[in-house]
Amino acid sequence: MFKSKYKSTDFPHRFQEESLALVNGLLPLTSSAFYLVDPNMHHKGIVLHGIEQEMDQAYRLHYKDLDPAHPARYQKRKENLVCLENIMSTSTLHNTVYYQEFLKPRNIEHVTDLFFRQEDRIIAVLTMLRDASLPAFSPEELQTLTVTQRFLEYAINTVYLPERASQRATITDRFELTDRELDVLEWVIAGAENKVIARELEVGLATVKTHLNHIYAKVGVSSRTQLLSRVFAEIGH
Question: Per the confidence metrics, is the pTM higher than 0.90?
């Protein structure tokens, strides 16, 4: 069963969870992830299913630039579905550093990504992974995902992003956080360590700690657990 760790009132993350539940219900997957992409191709607002934080952070810290399906490679192209096995041969993929050092040690054999766009710019990605116990994605499954992509892209643009913007505005109004503090908060919600936040936001580790201290002071808490509890409670009001 697909269980969310987020409260039902935390709409943006719940939307991502339900989107992951949808694709996991349509076809067998080992794990999956849904994340937003900012104009600089940085990930944010990440929700994971079956993926350990270690794997996610290793990807973002060391391997994302080696990913043949990284959205930056497709920003100026038209593809909205990318299956690694369709863009290079299995032998070629298996000889890449990305496969040898990242996918293979984690028993990941098959990867397919859905890209979601707003005015041609990639704004979100849904990644689907299969281990060696599952077959490659079939043409029929890829066709199903193509149809699913169109539905989710519409929902993201008409429902998800407006609500996400509304929640950011709610937090801003309630706690008077800056845009950068909101970015840091989103990474905290995603469970990212300070060093990952620093890399993704392209700032120093000391800067991240400063932002966190400012956030704690404004929200009136002293730990990440208290911070998340307070923010989720505020969004639910």
Answer: no
